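Why should sequence recovery work at all? Because a backbone constrains its sequence more than one might expect. Tight turns favour small or flexible residues, buried strands favour hydrophobic ones, and helices have their own preferences. The token representation captures these environments compactly. In the example below, the structure is given first.
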């Protein structure tokens, strides 16, 4: 079982100084990447921040039902990295309904255009895609999908066969 530790976003304790809660050092894009990775790994979602200081952004990161569905999928499979090249890392996680969760992580210091080729993740044919953070259907794509991902950002997708 993957257990990378607590989710440390929002306001977290600062042991280096007074121990008083302070905003986490992660950018918003990094916080989306952080939560996406935890969910793809099927890691326990244990929040360690200050609950009294939850703002709208942190609640959105922690409580997006489509992202949590990836973490809590009944199949219980852990995601894993399937492709790494330059500043792009791709993780996949098979889901109980036959769909596939895919995380495209831009590890570069600048935003970049990233292409996910089906062959790189063992797929073929036409796929229907949904952006889980934006809770938006993206349409059907044949062979690949290209998107812009900000610095240290993520595109978290769910793919189904297109009919």
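From this structural description, the recovered sequence reads:
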């Amino acid at each position: 079982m993957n257990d990378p530790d607590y989710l440390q976003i929002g306001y977290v304790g600062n042991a280096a100084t007074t121990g008083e809660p302070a905003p986490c050092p992660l950018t918003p894009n990094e916080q989306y990447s952080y939560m996406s990775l935890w969910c793809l790994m099927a890691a326990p979602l244990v929040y360690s921040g200050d609950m009294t200081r939850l703002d709208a952004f942190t609640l959105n990161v922690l409580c997006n039902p489509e992202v949590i569905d990836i973490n809590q999928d009944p199949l219980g499979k852990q995601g894993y990295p399937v492709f790494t090249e330059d500043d792009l890392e791709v993780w996949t996680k098979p889901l109980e309904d036959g769909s596939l969760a895919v995380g495209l992580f831009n590890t570069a210091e600048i935003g970049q255009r990233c292409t996910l080729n089906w062959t790189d993740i063992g797929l073929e044919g036409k796929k229907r895609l949904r952006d889980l953070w934006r809770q938006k259907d993206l349409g059907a794509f044949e062979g690949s999908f290209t998107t812009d991902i900000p610095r240290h950002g993520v595109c978290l997708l769910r793919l189904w066969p297109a009919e």
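A few observations help interpret the result. Residues 11-71 form one domain.
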